[in-house]
Q: What sequence folds into this?
């Protein structure tokens, strides 16, 4: 059994005629933090969404914790239970209280009792530093608080890998840091993470591996030091200079 | 209610102004014969309400059954839904009523089944069938209006399709489905008037019968319209109450 949490080998995906992912190869080891950046439409979100089968890939192999993603429903269920996901638009359940958002998965999918699930939920709400909001509805919270609840909701499933799909892109600027702080502390605890983001300060702080994507391809990949200081490809240089300028 | 009383006063006044046009004696509650006529007319209310309620119940159940295939990933299931909805929606109520009441028993008979269809069930079946195409569309749009992200989030916390529907999608969709569904009930109540042509003793039939014996169509049909008006006003007050409750729920 290898130490690889996620393996993508020669993965291709099309939306109709549009070739969104071109021969993607990516390996993420246990405890590793990978940050994916690139212009919009480059396929970076699609990579992440393929890993928990929100999108289906057409060729190549994707393995999560040694299990290959196929049409096998049981395999998909196992993989989803090990992979947490945080969305750009939070996707909290608006008809449920914060606490009920957090206990739904553990109770229905993991079979925990309400007391066990509540204990666990409160633990993770404290982890993201908003236990006092447990009884509120998501709509009563700020964007930053909602995203932290969404992170806590994923954590209550105790996943082995966390995927973040542009977690701060829908937030007002003053709320970005509270979400990033939570993510940094997760990284420090050794969580395996794949993060799609343009927050390069965050990337510099936590990334073990940087990936730059453009038009469906991985153009540049490597540790942050040469990636930020001496990117090899012209496209990556240009992209970095554009987003680092301001 | 203000509108209603204003309307009533206007009618009465115009009746006083030209007594040769209006003959309210036919439903004058102070005379014995007028009071009997009023009771005869209002007694149709029970059947109108009963037909509408039972038809609405079946329409709501049938509508959900018809709507579910529309949400499937399988194309042929969606096509089955489309054919049903387009077909049923395009048949006018009256021909459908004739077909169910006069035609369907012949089919039953040819199949060796002895299922008589009386005016009551003829009306209920027709109203339920005809309305189910509309309720199905209400369900479909209500469920589809819940953002895709909700399904995805439910999947990522490990919920199955059935659990996602039960705990995440339907509780949200029901808030959008219930008010238009209740609204649809008003249509059923109004369309139940067609049951009069197959002899069902409901509000319209009663008014028709009295017109034949009393020769007072203006007064009797005015009264009939007011009966429906009162009935529908009561239902729409209920719908508004429901909408307010749902809205308040959403905001909290």
A:
């Amino acid at each position: 059994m290898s130490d690889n949490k996620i393996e993508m080998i020669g993965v291709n995906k099309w939306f109709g005629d549009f070739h969104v992912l071109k021969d993607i190869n990516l390996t993420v080891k246990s405890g590793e933090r990978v940050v994916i950046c690139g212009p919009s439409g480059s396929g970076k979100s699609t990579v992440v969404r393929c890993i928990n089968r929100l999108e289906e890939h057409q060729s190549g192999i994707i393995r999560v914790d040694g299990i290959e993603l196929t049409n096998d429903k049981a395999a998909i269920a196992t993989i989803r239970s090990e992979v947490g996901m945080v969305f750009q638009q939070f996707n909290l359940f608006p008809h449920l209280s914060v606490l009920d958002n957090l206990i739904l998965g553990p109770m229905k999918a993991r079979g925990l009792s309400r007391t066990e699930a509540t204990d666990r939920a409160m633990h993770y709400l404290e982890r993201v530093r908003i236990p006092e909001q447990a009884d509120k509805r998501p709509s009563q919270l700020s964007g930053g608080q909602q995203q932290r609840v969404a992170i806590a909701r994923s954590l209550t499933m105790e996943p082995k890998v966390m995927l973040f799909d542009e977690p701060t892109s829908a937030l007002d600027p003053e709320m970005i840091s509270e979400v990033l702080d939570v993510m940094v502390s997760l990284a420090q605890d050794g969580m395996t993470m794949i993060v799609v983001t343009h927050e390069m300060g965050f990337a510099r702080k936590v990334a073990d591996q940087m990936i730059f994507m453009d038009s469906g391809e991985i153009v540049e990949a490597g540790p942050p030091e040469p990636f930020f200081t001496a990117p090899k490809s012209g496209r990556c240089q240009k992209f970095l200079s554009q987003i680092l300028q301001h | 209610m203000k509108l209603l009383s204003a309307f009533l006063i206007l009618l009465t006044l115009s009746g006083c102004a030209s007594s040769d046009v209006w003959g309210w004696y036919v439903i004058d509650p102070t005379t014995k014969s007028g009071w009997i006529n009023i009771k005869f007319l209002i007694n149709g209310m029970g059947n109108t309400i009963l037909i509408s309620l039972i038809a609405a119940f079946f329409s709501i159940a049938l509508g959900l059954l018809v709507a579910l295939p529309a949400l499937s990933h399988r194309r042929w299931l969606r096509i089955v839904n489309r054919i049903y909805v387009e077909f049923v929606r395009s048949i006018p109520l009256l021909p459908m009523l004739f077909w169910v009441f006069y035609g369907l028993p012949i089919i039953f008979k040819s199949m060796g089944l002895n299922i008589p269809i009386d005016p009551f069930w003829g009306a209920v079946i027709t109203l339920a069938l005809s309305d189910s195409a509309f309720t199905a569309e209400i369900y479909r749009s209500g469920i589809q209006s819940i953002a895709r992200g909700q399904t995805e989030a439910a999947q990522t916390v490990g919920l199955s399709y059935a659990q996602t529907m039960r705990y995440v999608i339907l509780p949200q969709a029901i808030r959008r489905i219930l008010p238009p569904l209740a609204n649809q009930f008003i249509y059923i109540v109004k369309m139940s008037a067609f049951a009069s042509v197959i002899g069902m003793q409901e509000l319209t039939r009663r008014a028709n019968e009295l017109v034949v014996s009393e020769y007072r169509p203006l007064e009797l049909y005015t009264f009939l319209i007011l009966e429906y008006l009162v009935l529908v006003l009561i239902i729409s007050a209920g719908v508004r109450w429901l909408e307010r409750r749902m809205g308040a729920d959403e905001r909290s």
User: Anything to note?
Assistant: Residues 217-251 of chain B form the longest helix (35 residues).
